[in-house]
Amino acid sequence: MQTRTLSMLIKASLFTAIPMLMLPAAATERTISELVDAVNGTPDDLSRDAGKKVKLRNHANGFCTSGVFKPNPQITDTFAIEFFTQANIDIVARFSLGGTNPQSSDKTAGRFMSLKLNGDTESLQFVTSNAEVFFASNLEDFFTFQTKVKQGNEGKQWLIDNKPDAKAFFDYIKKLPPTISYADNRYFGVNSFMFTSKNGEPVAGRWIFEPANGVITASADELAQKPDNFLHKELIERISTTPATWDLFVQLAEKQDNVNDPTIVWPTSRPRLLIGQVIINGQHDDAKATLECDKGIFNPLQLPKGIAPSADPILNARSAAYIESFIRRN
Fold first, then answer.
1. In angstroms, rounded to a whole number, what is the distance separating the alpha carbons of residues 67 and 95?
2. Is 49 helix (H, G, I), strand (E, B) or coil?
3. How far apart are CA 134 and CA 99, in angstroms?
4. Cβ-defined contacts of 233-238 (< 8 Å, 24+)
5. DSSP state at residue 26
6. pLDDT (tens digit, 0 to 9) for every residue of the chain, 330 residues total?
7. Type and span of the H or E element at 123
8. pTM of this structure
9. What is the rounded CA–CA span in Å between residue 330 and residue 205?
């Protein structure tokens, strides 16, 4: 894509930074401890203490591997982000399912990919899933969703009847087909970030990871032939011969797009900029950072200079919630 065309796209997505970075007040304040309790299903002191003993964590069914990120050399013609001037950046990756059960079945549709891009002096981290839409736009609705889903079908039906964002999420997940490899999925960062353009203006965008071979779904028969825990072995065997590869894009918002609401999917007509390529090949699987990957957290607010968080309340609560969860299990 030519520089002139990129500049025109950037101009179409410029925003006034100050109003965007004002955090909206939540309808009801929730502490970080309450949010972690809701995710873990530990709403009181007794259950919280029990949860600490078994070291509950979300995305418990998962594993770590490694690779390299190759930035698109042309992206620095558009963004003033020095991090992307490096030729190759080491990656620590964690692939996982949702929930606190480490034995959950791989035959569900949800897939998650978290990455740490460890540059020479800075780090860029991602927490993404194969769902393009989120179930809550504020912390109170997040708390309610996590609390109600722990109640089973009754709680889920309450959400469908009373929370439009939750209903939209369930409708989306119902249509999301499972895959037989983590490599066969698109991954989305549902939260928005502010990217510094070459002229110093903030540009709002969201991360999208496109698999190099496209999305490949599994039939019911293919899935039925698999054991409950096939995803780990499949990916490790795959990358021993052929890397799993994704193109990383930033989808740019336009003026009418709500930047701070992760429940809203932007139209596919929004322009996308190629940031670089993620190559998962296991090349550093014996390195300490990979071997000890599960001992730390992936923090989507760990950002290099030139990238800043939007005012999305869900995004801005993530770091503290992840740290609280980390403390409880260590």
1. 13
2. helix
3. 15
4. 234/180, 234/181, 234/182, 235/65, 235/95, 235/181, 235/182, 235/183, 235/280, 236/63, 236/65, 236/282, 238/181, 238/183
5. P
6. 434 444 444 444 443 232 333 333 443 478 999 999 999 999 999 999 999 999 999 999 999 999 999 999 999 999 999 999 999 999 999 999 999 999 999 999 999 999 999 999 999 999 999 999 999 999 999 999 999 999 999 999 999 999 999 999 999 999 998 999 999 999 999 999 999 999 999 999 999 999 999 999 999 899 999 999 999 999 999 999 999 999 999 999 999 999 999 999 999 999 999 999 999 999 999 999 999 999 999 999 999 999 999 999 999 999 999 999 999 988
7. strand 123-129
8. 0.91
9. 35
Output the six-digit token pair for 12. Answer: 């179409």
Q: Please, which residues bridge with residue 245 across strands?
A: 279
Residue written as tokens 């609280």? 324
The single residue listed with the structure tokens 């054991």 is 227
CA–CA dist 66, 235 (Å, integer): 12
